[in-house]
Design goal:
Layout (H helix, E strand, L loop, with lengths): L7 H8 L7 E4 L8 H6 L3 E6 L2 H13 L6 E5 L13 E6 L9 H7 E14 L5 H11 L3 E15 L2 E12 L1 E8 L2 E9 L5 E3 L1
Parallel strand pairs: 1-2, 1-4, 2-3, 4-5
Antiparallel strand pairs: 5-7, 6-7, 8-9, 9-10
The structure holds S-adenosylmethionine.
């Protein structure tokens, strides 16, 4: 089970960005160091965690911090969440350095129309941010406009390697379609789905 008190400053930076009207999914919640304080801020939080022992401590943390009403614990693989929480999240936390990129398709499905992703990675000092930015763009750009709002080094991880975080905003692409029905032009606004299809709004 993973918990590092060295990330307290980073967690505080992220937690203080969330507000009480938000819907947050912590995709790799551990014992809840992001999810529990965000729920305490009033956000509606879903915390996914694969490790059963971590889930037990997460539930204890939720109860001790009196946030059970606005924290849903999803025990199991976060990929299973994407059916029930499609297009749902205003904020996604992806603290799974080394392999968060494998979950970007899931993240795109979970993201709502305007969603910030906090994406953690570990990279060599020569290419700290590019691999993550490229992976996010490649997963999301068909459906969303992708803006990198913050890129920063969280801490040194190994010689010449750093734990970094990207705060990336996804804003769903909207576009107009013109349908020609019996000679009358109807302008219909559509939005892009996660699968890249057009859905009439
Ligand atoms: C680096 S830890 C981060 C934990 C916590 N967010 C923190 O900041 O301390 C990553 C966590 O993701 C969990 N995890 C790994 N793969 C997962 C998956 N497919 N679905 C849900 N949780 C997963 C691990 O069990 C681990 O607790």
């Amino acid at each position: 089970m993973y918990f590092s008190p060295r990330l307290a400053t980073e967690r505080h930076r992220v937690v203080t960005q969330s507000d009480s009207n938000e819907r947050v999914i912590d995709m790799f919640a551990g014992v809840g160091p992001f999810a529990v304080p965000m729920a305490a801020h009033g956000a509606d939080v879903v915390a996914a965690e694969l490790n059963e022992s971590a889930v037990e401590y997460l539930l204890i943390n939720a109860e001790q911090n009196d946030v059970v009403d606005n924290l849903t614990v999803a025990s199991g693989d976060v990929k299973a969440l994407s059916d029930s929480y499609t297009d749902w999240a205003d904020r996604l936390i992806m603290n799974l350095p080394h392999s968060a990129d494998e979950f970007l398709q899931t993240a795109v499905r979970l993201a709502g129309d305007d969603c910030v992703i906090h994406y953690y990675d570990i990279q060599h000092e020569d290419t700290l941010f590019e691999p993550g930015i490229n992976a996010i763009r490649s997963a999301a750009e068909q459906t969303y406009t992708v803006s990198v709002e913050t890129r920063h080094e969280v801490r040194s991880y190994a010689p010449h390697e750093y734990n970094i975080c990207l705060d990336v905003r996804l804003q769903r692409r909207w576009f107009g379609n013109v349908l020609n029905i019996t000679g009358i032009y109807i302008h219909e606004q559509c939005r892009c789905s996660s699968a890249g299809r057009a859905i009439p709004s």
